[in-house]
Amino acid sequence: MFPQALFPLFVALSCNLIAQAAKTIFYYLKSGKWDLHWVVASGGFPSSHSSTVTGLSMAIGMQEGFDSTIFAVTAVFAFIVMYDACHVRYYSGKNIELTQQLIKDLKDMEVQLDNPIYEEQLKSVLGHRFIEVLGGFVVGLVFPLLFIPLFLG
Fold it and tell me: Coiled coil located at which positions (predicted)?
């Protein structure tokens, strides 16, 4: 048995780690290649952002009640994070891809780009597609139920 007060923290961190590890497995299933960078990468399936905030919200609901104020706060927080991951961060990543392609095309046309900013390598995978967010949401719903016996049972 672990201290009950740590249940939400344990669940949130565990859901994050589970989703991050799962990214490596799903990448292998998709590509046939092992790439351990997915253990720490943002983007990909399932969303660790979504799994973390959903797991936190579920754990709070299970511990404090789904009719509690703190559950309402964490649920709203979770929806904001998931919306951001699926929309704002996803389209930011798409804008980076587009910008990088434009710079490459200009260089191929031998346009002189003297500013060092054009040499910066930006990370293009920032956000998630809806299915990746949904996958993280499912991880965050399921795993708190598995951890109940450790804390609350």
Answer: none
3-class secondary-structure state, position 26: helix
Q: Is the four-CA dihedral 59, 65, 70, 73 of positive or negative sign?
A: positive
Dihedral (Cα; 59, 63, 67, 73), 10-degree rounding: -50
Please state the pTM of the whole predicted model. Answer: 0.80
Which residue has tokens 């919200």?
57
Q: So where are the chain's domains? A: 4-87+130-151
Taking CA atoms, 135 is separated from 51, 52, 117, 126, 150, in Å, by 8, 12, 36, 17, 24
Q: What is the CA angle 12-87-93, rounded to 5?
A: 95
List the chain pLDDT tens, one digit each, 153 residues. Answer: 678 889 999 999 999 999 999 999 999 999 999 988 888 887 889 999 999 999 999 999 999 999 999 999 999 999 999 998 887 777 777 777 887 888 788 878 887 888 787 777 766 666 788 999 999 999 999 999 998 888 766
Cβ count near 129 (within 10 Å): 15
